[in-house]
Design a protein that fits this description.
The structure holds 2 protein chains of 2 kinds.
Chain A lengths: L1 E5 L3 H13 L3 E5 L2 H10 L4 E5 L8 H10 L6 E5 L4 H9 L4 E4 L4 H16 L6 E4 L2 E4 L4 E4 L2 E3 L3 H12 L5 E2 H9 L9 H13 L8 E4 L3 E4 L5
Parallel strand pairs in A: 1-2, 1-3, 3-4, 4-5
Antiparallel strand pairs in A: 6-7, 7-8, 8-9, 10-12, 11-12
Chain B lengths: L1 H9 L1 H4 L15 H27 L1 H41 L5 E6 L5 E4 L15 E7 L2 E11 L5 E7 L1 H51 L15 H33 L1 H17 L3 H33 L7 E4 H18 L3 E5 L5 E4 L1 H18 L5 E8 L3 E7 L7 H4 L21 H11 L3 E6 L4 E8 L9
Parallel strand pairs in B: 7-9
Antiparallel strand pairs in B: 1-2, 1-5, 3-4, 4-5, 6-8, 9-10, 10-12, 11-12
Helix pairs in contact in B: 1-8, 3-5, 7-8, 8-12, 9-10, 10-12
Chain lengths: 227, 481
Amino acid sequence: MRILVVEDDKDVGGFVVRGLKEAGHVVEHADNGRDGLFLAASETFDAVVLDRMLPGGIDGLRLVETLRAQKNSVPVMILSALADVDERVRGLKAGGDDYLTKPFAFAELLARVEALGRRSKGEGPLTKLVVEDLELDLLSRQVKRAGQKIDLQPREFRLLEYLMRHAGQVVTRTMLLEGVWDYHFDPQTNVIDVHVSRLRQKVDKPFPIPLIQTVRNAGYMLRAESP
Amino acid sequence: MTQSSVLSEHFPAVADPRPVGGMNRGLLHSAGVRFAVIYAVLLALSAAALALFLWWATAGLLDRQTEASIQADAQSLSERFAAGGLPALGLTIEDRLTQDVEDDAIYLLIDPAQERLAGNLARWPQTVTQTGAWYELPIERAGMRSLALVQSYNLPGGFRLLIGRDVHVRARLRSLLTDALLWAVLVVVVMASVGALVVRSLFRHTLASVSATATAIAAGDFAQRVQLSGRGDEFDQLAETINDMLDRMARLMEGVREVSNAIAHDLRTPITRARARLEDAGLHAETVPDLRAAIERATADLDGIVAVFQALLRIAEIEAGSRRSAFAQIDLAPLVADVAELYGAVAEEKGITLSVSAPTHLPVYGDRDLIQQALANLVDNAVKFSPAGGAVRLSTSVTAAGVDIVVADQGPGIPVADRARATERFYRGEIARNTPGSGLGLALVQAVAQLHGGNLRLEAAEPGLAAILSLPGYDEPSLPG
């Protein structure tokens, strides 16, 4: 993926750029709002990581608003130290696609940016998700593996659907809480792990190749080979 | 950075020590002077109105009576003239003069040559020229100077008749009355001025306590309160309101102080741990895996500190009340089902049965996300503190005021003595010290309950703890102050 990072803090910016490059992405870096806007408007990116408070007269929100006014729909991940719910809402209203508060774990940022970049490819409405021998029919709401029907609870179905839509990508616990349960806070207990392990019992246990992988310090990934 | 800005927004007034008294500014800007002047003007105006009415009712009445009697006289004399002609008129006039007991009647009948035919005036007064008009003129009668009110009438053949009354006495009475009223007005003006001064000093005196308190508080003495006069009047009510406000501010400041202390103490430990790990790794780690492991643990410690900060900020945000804009009519039933489903798996893992009893519809007026988080915190606690094989009961009911949510567990519970403190930030009971957690869960639930105008009660569940969260329903979108 081609990713633009707009971040003025040298340490944070360098850390993010290095991390994204290591993950195999092509990264451009701007350290102020003006350059960031110029790059974002003149070149094509799969995703933009954007700090909210920027020098150069154009802050993060202005930058997104300007891009959106130009009908530029590149996915934007806003990065901010402003953690209030209202600030988050403002960021998303301005045109941001996701909002991550500082401090953050890099794994979380990477997973979310990759999810954003994938989303922008925008395949049409799907009726069926397939990963290896696992099939999930969105219309009949049936799950089969190797032709064998698997019975899932409604929530387990949604969890699996989310994992399959992001197949091959790291999905963090926070993403699952937001995407599957619509919870926008962090429960103290590791509730997600328990739900994923239950899903594993049904989807992976009876079959030779496990599909749901645990990614250390990050989250989960649905794919055939071990990481 | 956000923490300090959130806190300072709560108390802008304290940070801005403006003089509150303002009693020594220009006279025109003083409310006391303004009220005093208004008082004086009102008093003077009403006194003047009273004097005018008195004058109209006494002196005016006398004048009107005199005029009426002259007109009645003219009426009867004209009838006599019509019946008996000039001689009869002359006789009647003389008759009336002799029978005039009060000795105030004035008549004069003259012929075209200005010669007197009858009456008690020597000659026709020069000034009287028009008929029908009232004249008040000095006359000389029986050698005495006097004052008379007269009217003249024309008779056929150039004869003229003058009818009047001696108003000397009445005029004296009238001037006496006028003088008295004028003096009275003067006295009123003096009294109004004195009264105005009294009003002003009363006003000043009443406000002095408020002003002194405000000045003292601005100077930093937050223990000061406005003195009550004990009369229970409007000023006392104002003073009570101000004192209530000051109490609330004092409580908030106390809360802020507690939180600051708690942050200082409770975050020092994990920060110390993280710092020690990093330093130790830097000094003693022999291998790269050792170093990595130490860094990872330190990162986890830092994540924990960030989580505590976020929880604190969220509680502060909720307590500030800014989220009330997100209030809406929501149905709690699916939220309860979601939380039960989310924690059901964890409970089962621990061998705990989580049972739910809820009506199909639970109308609540509030913020969906916050209530969801409060519910999650309560169930999280219950599951965390329940022993294996225990039961957690999540039951909800619609009450007259709104909705009650009860989360009961069979854990160790909280001793009665500690229950009031259990919702304070960073409170951790004796038993809770060995379980993971920040001590902020119940504080957040409490903040959410207060924001919604509801409450959180902790009761014994025999065994265990029952947390009862009451939230208002649709009909009363109560917004506590």
